[in-house]
Structure prediction request, 227 residues.
Amino acid sequence: MKNRLEELRKQKGIKQEELAAILEVSRQTIGSLENGRYNPSILLAFKLARYFEISIEEIFIYEEEKEHE
Amino acid sequence: MNNNIMDNKTVNLQSKQKRMIDYITVSIGLALLVVGLYLIKALTDPKGVMLALPYVAIGIGCGTFGHGMGNIIQRKALKGHPEIARQIAIDQNDERNIAVGNRAKAKAHDMMVYVFGALMLSYALMGVGVLPILLLVGSYLFVIFYGIYYRVKYDKEM
Prediction:
């Protein structure tokens, strides 16, 4: 799933380590989220949305899978 | 305010209990180690189970002692470094780390089913006695049914 996490974090001017410490997750988790390799739990998604003061949909971009192509 | 006091009390009680468990573990390990060493020295002509028992006691004793002592040393080392302790707690509870660990365990379980199967077949073809094969089959089925039990349990819970 694509997301705007890296862009939002850079707008805030904080490092991955700092965001990880605020959300109480590892730095690797933030890195994987930004690369789109890992989809967060709904709790972490809410934590992120609350931290950036926007909705979850504004961070994570849901794309329906094109299964029948 | 009252909730915070209660939370702190609960955390202190839990940490005290963990400390106690570690000291008990170390004591049991040390006792097993001493008993094992004593049995090796004292038994002049061991027979049957007594041939292996002292070494089993030493082995389990060393493991138990090491486990308990490791926890005690870790707690003492982290006492003056709350930041490191916090980072360790974060890494242990990190949802991605937990997900990675669970996925790796699932893969290992899938592989274990094949390894157990191959081992059972090899033992049977090698003409090993019935008892080892039955023990192996029993262990294999126990693991499989353990998995089924938790599948049903989680299916009801989730």
